[in-house]
Amino acid sequence: MTAFSVLDLSPIVEGGDARRALLETAELARTAERTGFKRFWLAEHHNMPGIASAATAVALGFVASQTQTIRVGSGGIMLPNHAPLVVAEQFGTLAALYPDRIDLGLGRAPGTDGETARALRRYFEAADQFPRDVMELQNFLGDPVEGQRVTAWPGAGSKVPVWLLGSSLFSAELAAHLGLPFAFASHFAPELLLQALETYRAGFRPSKQLAAPYAMAAINVFAADSDAEAQRVSTSMQQAFAAVVTGKPGKLKPAVDDITTVLDARQIAAVESRLTYAAVGGVETVRTKLAEFIALTKVDEVMVTGMIHDLDARLHSLEVTAEAIGGL
User: Fold this and answer.
1) Under CATH, what is the fold of the domain 1-160?
2) 3-state secondary structure of 42
């Protein structure tokens, strides 16, 4: 049976601040746990005034402290921004505090622009070292070996599950080569989804962590009591996508009744291309769209995501999604 999980960016809404965003993220995580989702992941982004999860490991610790059983992880940590040893220590600490609940998803992009990457004291060429850094990080999380000069304390022996995330074929190939689970970012980069999944499955080599390929794909989900209401609440994310495309990211805007009153035709077309894989509607519509997505991708796990301005609508969207999943 296909598993379902949740990806959140801890959106900062207009009129709100980072504290409110993180508290609302914790409430969303508790709702995900109560309604039966398997994981709750947060993503690393920098220099984004509308995202509160930049210090991802810190935010994950807070979410884990506010929940009991759901797996908590990164979707993902952008490894070129960090030394593998530091990541191993951070996630080793999380694993010590919350045993058997922590996932470590890794991405190759910087999660920001070039100037911000330089402010992080990392450089774009660091992405070229990604395969080496992934293996170094795995070694830090594994059992120490005799003669090892540098050890992650905490971290060593924790064997925190490592995932590779991507929106291209590179990470699909690397995940297959290293025998790691693979998650594709089809919620914002849909173009190569099917090709990446095929590449991953065809090239997979069993590893100590994973005996057979395990693939996840993300889909935007906006669920409500009616198709019309779901369309309305989805307009906050449409505005957010348009802002990113135009290079002017900001706080998450309230929903509008008619998206054409705030976005022009060019912006709407750009947003629609990113929302190729989306389930927007009432429970039956969402159920149908999710079933179609699973049939198309044959993934082992689906990660749902969707930034909604109003907290009550955001929580209800997850509840309706859980109801839709229950009928699959």
Assistant:
1) TIM Barrel (3.20.20)
2) strand
Among candidates 114, 296, 267, which has minimal Cα distance to 190? 296
Q: How confident is the model at residue 156 (pLDDT cuts 50, 70, 90)?
A: very high
Quick count: other Cβ atoms within 10 Å of Cβ 273?
Answer: 12
Contacts of 114 (CB under 8 A, 6+ apart): 124
Q: Tokens representing 127? A: 């992405």
DSSP string spanning 207-272? -SS-SS--EEEEEEEEE-SSHHHHHHHTHHHHHHHHHHHTT---SBPPP-S-GGGTS-HHHHHHHH
Determine the length of the chain.
328
Report the predicted TM-score, pTM, of the whole model to 2 decimal places: 0.96
Q: What is the pLDDT of residue 126?
A: 59
Domain ranges of the chain: 1-160, 219-328
d(CA 261, CA 277): 24
Radius of gyration of the chain (CA): 19
| Backbone dihedral angles phi then psi of residue 278, each to the nearest 5 degrees | -150, 145
| Contact (Cβ atoms closer than 8 angstroms) between residue 307 and residue 213 | no
Beta carbons of 160 and 104 less than 8 angstroms apart: yes
